[in-house]
Write a structure and sequence with these properties.
about 15% strand, 7-stranded mixed β-sheet, TIM Barrel, alpha/beta, 2 domains, about 280 residues, about 40% helix, single chain, DNA polymerase, domain 1
Length: about 280
């Protein structure tokens, strides 16, 4: 495995095991076809696809890192921490993720109840139908159901009008703590990465992002996503500077879920700036 920033690494994507629409095997094939050299499947709060992903990657001669994306509540904001190079059979992270998944069903029922109050009925059953893993029913599954029903033209429109804070279908949830998420990743032999930091608009607006980076680093977090599907070209530059400022390794990942929903396909990202140290250097 090359440790150069020019490696086509895609270290953030999702399968049907969480809220993607492709199987782990289909994602491996798509990554290989798109020229990816190093790949990681990072389903939300779930490791059930790791064995299939690793075996599929091996069959394709595609370098692979086991991964996960952990939902975290920090300063009242939901953020995501990716774990890369983890041991997917480590008891500590498996149990921690199980606890994190608890409560999704109750939240989904409350979301459906609130949507019914504005005339959108059957949303819980519809979202379940869209979910490959019923234990991981999420806002994305509700969004796909509302698109199917013609309520909105696409999932982005659903989120903006129904599923973000202040909108009819939004229900807050208490996820894992930042301390726990980083500890689980480290205990399982992995590297903790702050996922798509440009998406945390409230923290950025309140200038609390600096506190996040400091606390994350104090806990042993090592990396930050610089080039990702939800960042703009200007944000690539912003988070490259953040990586340098805090001494973070730089990660790269499309956050691919579905070809009709995701901004960028697997592997079709700009390369990391060549002056940064890539996160895959930690696994060389």
């Amino acid at each position: 495995m090359s440790i150069l920033p020019t490696l086509n690494a895609d270290l953030h994507c999702h399968s049907v095991v969480s809220d993607g629409t492709f199987t782990p095997e289909a994602l491996a094939e798509r990554a290989k076809a798109n020229g990816v050299h190093l790949w990681a499947l990072t389903d939300h709060d779930e490791l059930g696809g790791q064995k299939h992903a690793r075996e599929a990657a091996s069959a394709l001669n595609l370098d692979y890192l086991a991964g996960v994306e952990i939902s975290v509540t920090w300063m009242g904001e939901t953020i995501h921490i990716v774990g890369l190079g983890i041991d997917a059979e480590h008891v500590g992270i498996i149990e921690g993720l199980r606890r994190t998944r608890e409560g999704r069903g109750n939240r989904a029922q409350l979301m459906a109840d609130q949507l019914a109050k504005v005339g959108i009925y059957g949303a819980y059953e519809g979202a379940l139908h869209c979910a490959g893993n019923h234990q991981l029913i999420s806002r994305t599954h509700f969004a796909r159901y509302l698109v199917e029903q013609g309520v909105c033209r696409n999932t982005e429109h659903v989120f903006k009008n129904y599923l973000i804070e202040g909108k009819p279908g939004y229900v807050p949830h208490q996820w894992a703590s930042l301390d726990d998420a980083v500890a689980w990743i480290k205990a399982s032999g992995g590297v903790a990465v702050i996922a798509h930091p440009g998406r945390y608009s409230r923290l950025n607006a309140m200038q609390m992002d600096d506190e996040l980076y400091k606390r994350f680093k104090d806990l042993g977090g090592l990396a930050i996503e610089v080039v990702t599907g939800s960042h703009s070209p200007d944000q690539y530059k912003t988070y490259a500077k953040i990586a340098e400022q805090y001494g973070f390794l730089a990660s790269r990942g499309s956050d691919f879920h579905d070809p009709n929903e995701s901004h960028i396909d697997l592997g079709n990202l700009p390369l990391l700036p060549d002056h940064l140290t890539p996160v895959w250097s930690a696994f060389h």
